[in-house]
Amino acid sequence: MKIKITRKQMAVAVVLIIVLPIIYNKVSTYVAGMIAQQLMRLPKEVVADNPVQMDTYISAESTGRVEAKYSVDVVARVSGWLQKKYFKEGDFVHKGQTLFQIDPREYQLEVNNSKAAVNQYSALLKNAQQELDRANSLIKEDLISHSDVDSSLATRNSNQALLDAARQKYELARVNLGYTTIKSPIDGRIGKVKITEGNYVNTTSGPLVNISSTDPVYVSFSLRSSDFVKLLRASDKFKNVEVRAIFSSGKTYPYIGKVNFVDNQIDKNSGSVQMRAVFENPKGWLVPGDYMKVTLTAPEQVSFMTVPQSCAKGDAMSGYYVWAIKDNKAVRKDIKVSDTIDKNWIVTDGLDYKDTIVVAGIQSITAEGQKLKVISREEYDKKGKK
């Protein structure tokens, strides 16, 4: 049996095939929109909490370099042949210990000659003084003229001046002779010899060797201006800040250092402040030139208002804000932050401890005034919200 379809029926079928899907899509879209609007009117479920007070020690980190408290280049102060050295390179030497000997013979001769000149002028002065005394006695009896007395006085004064000059020359000769024996000016570790025995040295020859003190030592470092201000506020001008030095191995140096220098300005190029700490170094573990990690910690805890970083939106350029809840509605609060503590922002302005802020579910908040429903963290996690 054949079914006969007229052209009219065919046309109606074609129209239905084309029109029905369009009608269905429009109806379904409308219905979906209505459902979405209804869902939008429902309060968004969020987790809320108050800002938290956190007590913490203010600290900062930097990289420091060990420096000797005293670093002295030993130089020759007189000219001559370097005869001998009295130490081993790398030795620890003491203040006053003999290090080098310059040929002293010509300086000893100068001392001898100067001493002889002192003796000569001493004798001449003694004779001139006796002549002056006799002249003063004779003038009282009018046996000589006043010009004779004046002449004796001038001779005595001239010999006195010559003796004073001879004594100064003698003293200078003795000093120069003393300089031929070069001694250590400080206690410390001596370095590599730069000019060896047998060379002719003088005051322009440069350093013979370097000596660096080993106990105590300095560790110099720089702090970012933000860290500098935080520590300054949390301490008594850094007087009671504890400084720790950490070796590259991760081991902490057992002695605590103290800040003994703070520069008077912030470097305009690096935005940091140059500082220095002094450490006891009885075992010589801190070696000048070595680099150390440095941590500084203020002595007393400081209280801060904090909020989780995850609940704040924005950035350092445009600023940060959080969603607070008032009358079950979202309220935007702009905040100022300074630093972080354990994944929490330190809030310096914009919030009060009584404020209730959204700490989970902020992704569902799209506008201020949106209705919110506060649920517990357990319920929120159970529903699989993220």
Description:
By secondary structure, this protein is α+β, with helices and mostly antiparallel strands. The chain has four domains: 44-56 and 304-382, conserved putative lor/sdh protein from methanococcus maripaludis s2 fold (Beta Barrel); 59-69 and 214-300, Elongation Factor Tu (Ef-tu), domain 3 (Beta Barrel); 75-101 and 182-212, Beta Barrel (OB fold (Dihydrolipoamide Acetyltransferase, E2P)), CATH 2.40.50.100; 104-179, Helix Hairpins. The protein is built from five helices and 21 strands. A six-stranded antiparallel beta barrel has the order 2-11-14-13-12-15. The two termini are 64 Å apart. The mean pLDDT is 85.
Q: What layout of secondary structure does this protein have?
A:
Blueprint: H1 7-41, E1 44-49, E2 52-68, E3 71-74, E4 80-85, E5 92-93, E6 98-102, H2 105-140, H3 146-179, E7 181-183, E8 188-190, E9 200-201, E10 209-212, E11 217-224, H4 225-233, E12 242-246, E13 257-262, E14 272-279, E15 291-308, E16 313-315, E17 319-326, E18 329-341, E19 344-349, E20 357-360, E21 372-374, H5 377-382
Parallel strand pairs: 1-21
Antiparallel strand pairs: 1-20, 2-11, 2-15, 3-10, 4-6, 4-9, 5-8, 6-7, 8-10, 11-14, 12-13, 12-15, 13-14, 15-19, 16-17, 17-18, 18-19
Helix pairs in contact: 2-3
